[in-house]
Each structure stands twice: as C-alpha cells, then as structure tokens.
Specification:
The chain is mostly helical. Helix content is 46%, strand content 8%. The chain is elongated, with a radius of gyration of 19 Å. InterPro entries: Disease_R_plants (IPR044974), NB-ARC (IPR002182), P-loop_NTPase (IPR027417).
Length: 173
C-alpha cells in the first residue's frame, strides 16, 4: 500500500476515458465490500451500470442479477472500467468477470495488492507492477510537493533527506 497504484490508475483514467462509449472508476472496492459484504458488491454493480449507461438509477436485487445485467447491457459497449483496490476473485468476477461481457476495445484496469488474483490458468491479464521510488525520485517528488521546486531548499536539505529515507520509496508515506 502507498506505492501509487490508485494515483496511476486515476491518471490513466482521466487521460483516456474520452476514448470510450462509457467509463466508470470504482474506487476503494475492498473496503466497500468489507463494510457491506454482498450489499457493497451489489451497490458497486449498480454504480457501474448507472455511470456507463448514463442513468440515475439501476436496481440490482442480488450479485448474480448484477452480473447478468452487466453482461447483457454492456456487451456492445466499448468501456473503460477501473476497479481500484480489488482484493478477491469474487469482487473481480462480480464486476468484470469475462472479457465478452464488454464490447470490442474495452479496457478494464484493476489495482490490487493481491498479485495472485491475476495469475493462474485462463487468466491472460497484462500486468504492471508499481515499484517503490528510488531515493532521488522520492526526494524530487517530496521537494515538488513541499517546496514547489525539484530540490529541497538549502536550509532543509538534511531534514528532507531524513524524511525521504524514512518513507522508504512509498510516495503516500
């Protein structure tokens, strides 16, 4: 956590969402499902359908019905969906289980800490692993946010080095 998966996914989403018939960013999927269980998953399915179909209300009685609606209503649409902080196969299957649920050219971006979710037989996902920043990149990012300059100001060089070392390459820290 804190390496920048969500930030990268948001940036990609903002950059390319206009290239699709519909788009939806489902943020913080893991905690929504932990809080509400199946009801949270059902709400996420409703959010996905409403956003892509440009409607204010879609009612889903249960997760299985939501799967069926997503598959049926989005099959011909070229969509961009981001499923952020997905933790389980159940969540992924309920929101974007099969490629043929969506039209040709659709893109599904999944952020997860659980790399095993994207591995195994029948899973041909393209993967991008976000790595921690090295010290120099961390210092530059810290400096831009703190001093609005790519390097720390002279009186703050030593403390900036300590802060960046402590953060260990995790931008969120």
């Amino acid at each position: 956590g804190g390496v920048g998966k969500t930030t990268i996914a948001k940036a990609m989403y903002e950059k390319i969402n206009g290239m699709f018939d519909g788009n939806c960013f489902l943020g913080d999927v893991r905690s929504k499902c932990l809080e509400k269980g199946c009801a949270g998953l059902k709400c996420l399915q409703e959010q996905l359908l409403c956003k892509i179909l440009l409607t204010t209300k879609v009612e889903v009685d249960n997760v299985d019905e939501g799967i069926s609606l997503i598959e049926r209503r989005l099959r011909a649409k070229n969509v961009l969906i981001v499923i952020d902080d997905n933790w389980s196969e159940i969540q992924l299957n309920a929101l974007a289980g099969e490629r043929n649920w969506f039209g040709r050219g659709s893109t599904i971006i999944v952020t997860t800490r659980n790399a095993n979710l994207l591995n195994g037989p029948g899973k041909d996902y393209e993967k991008y692993e976000v790595r921690r920043l090295d010290f120099d990149k961390s210092l530059q990012l810290f400096s831009w946010h703190t001093f609005k300059h790519p390097n720390p100001l002279e009186p703050f060089v030593e403390i900036s080095d300590k802060i960046v070392s402590f953060a260990g390459g995790f931008p969120l820290a």
